[in-house]
Write a sequence for this structure.
């Protein structure tokens, strides 16, 4: 049931930079982060299947693929849990961010593909959008395939879309009639719960006001170089970790190829500023649905105070901090008297260097 008073402000961004207000926001919803629906032609969809991967590494592998398999040089991504698998959305961050900044300035809205604002479907369908048409295949209430065309799907285009869908039910020989769908304000694009996002998005756009302020400034100071150099080291480690635990290593050849491609960024290093480290730390705890109580940033160290309930997640937090590329020597300290958990860590002077030979293939065990 839609609770209109909780609906945030919703706007739609077209590929030509035009903005359309779809909902002004409810009485309480205006306090929430605004949602920007990206026109389908601005986004690319792919489904990431995880049957070949260990269950405890599937989410990690999906996030890794979202970072390395992007069809854009400077990509933003959104990872959505889809049954046992994941749906991945990408868009050109350089192009979209410029239009968003022009409209919203320093405020960071939540960016969502407009497909996520549609009611869920069953089987095959074609959706008529403001610009163009989208062919979709749904199974078990989850989107398995999506393709966009500016013109209507004719018989050859429809056949080209349907024949590449593995394990799908028989598709109609002729394209279904396009249907215009209402916005589903109860859908995943507007959920009150935390959306499944990649680590970069959490660091770049935590929902709390403190996170928003710190991360916006951090992004301006850190620059793309620091992100790429940190990514390269982390992606190398994550790829090796997943490969070592996967019996069907051949299924991960794409991850290895992308890892090698990122080796080109190994010389890109930028000094980690205290502000960028603070933004990263706040984004990391946001992934765990935690709100920091206090933050102390020094030139070469940082401590973040969390509610005492976070003690059970200490191991996961340590791993996230150390894998981010910003921190090392992470030490948790409990303050039982004040019911708090304090995470103390060292801040890296620069992104950790890559290994001397990233061009080598996987080891025999991978």
């Amino acid at each position: 049931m839609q609770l209109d008073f909780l609906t945030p402000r919703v706007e739609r961004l077209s590929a030509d930079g035009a903005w359309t207000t779809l909902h002004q926001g409810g009485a309480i919803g205006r306090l929430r982060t605004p949602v920007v629906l990206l026109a389908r032609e601005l986004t690319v969809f792919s489904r990431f299947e995880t049957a070949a991967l260990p269950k405890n590494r599937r989410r990690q592998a999906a996030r890794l693929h979202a970072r390395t398999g992007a069809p854009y040089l400077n990509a933003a991504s959104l990872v959505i849990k889809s049954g046992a698998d994941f749906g991945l959305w990408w868009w050109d961050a350089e192009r979209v961010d410029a239009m968003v900044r022009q409209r919203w300035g320093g405020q960071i809205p939540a960016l969502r593909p407009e497909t996520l604002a549609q009611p869920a479907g069953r089987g095959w369908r074609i959706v008529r959008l403001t610009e163009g048409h989208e062919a979709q295949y749904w199974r078990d209430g989850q989107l398995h395939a999506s393709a966009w065309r500016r013109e209507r799907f004719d018989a050859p285009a429809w056949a080209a879309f349907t024949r590449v869908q593995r394990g799908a039910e028989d598709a109609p020989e002729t394209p279904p009639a396009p249907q215009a769908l209402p916005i589903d304000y109860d859908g995943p694009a507007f959920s009150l719960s935390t959306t499944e996002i990649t680590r970069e998005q959490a660091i770049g756009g935590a929902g709390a006001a403190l996170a928003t302020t710190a991360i916006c400034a951090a992004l301006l100071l850190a620059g793309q170089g620091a992100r790429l150099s940190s990514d390269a080291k982390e992606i190398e480690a994550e790829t090796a970790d997943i490969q070592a635990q996967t019996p069907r290593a051949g299924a991960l050849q794409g991850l290895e190829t992308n890892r090698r491609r990122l080796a080109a960024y190994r010389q890109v290093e930028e000094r980690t500023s205290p502000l960028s480290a603070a933004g990263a730390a706040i984004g990391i705890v946001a992934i765990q649905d935690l709100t920091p109580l206090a933050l102390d940033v020094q030139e070469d160290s940082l401590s973040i105070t969390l509610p005492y309930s976070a003690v059970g997640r200490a191991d996961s937090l340590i791993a996230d901090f150390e894998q981010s590329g910003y921190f090392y020597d992470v030490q948790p300290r409990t303050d039982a008297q004040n019911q708090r958990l304090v995470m103390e860590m060292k801040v890296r002077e620069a992104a950790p260097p890559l290994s001397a030979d990233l061009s080598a293939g996987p080891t025999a065990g991978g």
Notes: Residues 209-244 form the longest helix (36 residues).
